[in-house]
Design goal:
Shape: globular
Order of helices and strands: HHHHEEHHH
Strand content: 5-15%
Helix content: 55-70%
CATH superfamily: Winged helix-like DNA-binding domain superfamily/Winged helix DNA-binding domain
CATH topology: Arc Repressor Mutant, subunit A
Largest sheet: 2 strands, antiparallel
């Protein structure tokens, strides 16, 4: 089913515009909350994914977070320079780079669950539990292939 036609399409009334604007608002609020840690919202996704053991390679991170490999490399460079993670070549396959959090990276990653939910909850404060669940369901449906 087509929800838009050339005649009825309006940029500011489109789902894409609303999703992008919501993302920008959230990123701005998260970046402000993360300022003292010296990391960005995108870097938070990397650190939390690694902290939870969800990913161990740049490729896995790129796929999970929807970030192209070039940008991923630059973000990993910054995190490595800051001493938050380290890269090592796989002994089984030298083409594979494994990522591990440093002690400092683990320390920063451990603080994130105390910061990120505060920002998210503030943004979601007007949602009932059922509205929140419906938003999650609809976003999951929107992201399906």
């Amino acid at each position: 089913m087509d929800h838009y036609t050339p005649e009825t399409f309006s940029l500011t009334k489109s789902v894409g515009f609303a999703v992008n604007k919501a993302r920008n608002v959230l990123v701005g609020e998260l970046d402000a909350a993360l300022k003292d840690l010296g990391i960005t919202t995108q870097q938070t996704g990397i650190l939390m994914s690694m902290r939870g053991g969800v990913t161990q390679t740049p490729f896995e991170l790129s796929k999970l977070l929807g970030i192209d490999t070039g940008l991923m490399t630059r973000m990993l460079d910054k995190l490595e320079t800051r001493g938050l993670l380290q890269r090592t070549r796989s002994l089984e396959d030298r083409r594979v780079v494994n990522l591990t959090l440093t002690r400092e990276g683990e320390k920063v990653a451990d603080t994130l669950p105390h910061i990120v939910p505060v920002v998210l909850n503030r943004r979601l404060r007007k949602f009932s539990k059922s509205e929140f669940q419906e938003l999650r369901r609809l976003l999951d449906k929107f992201l399906e292939d």
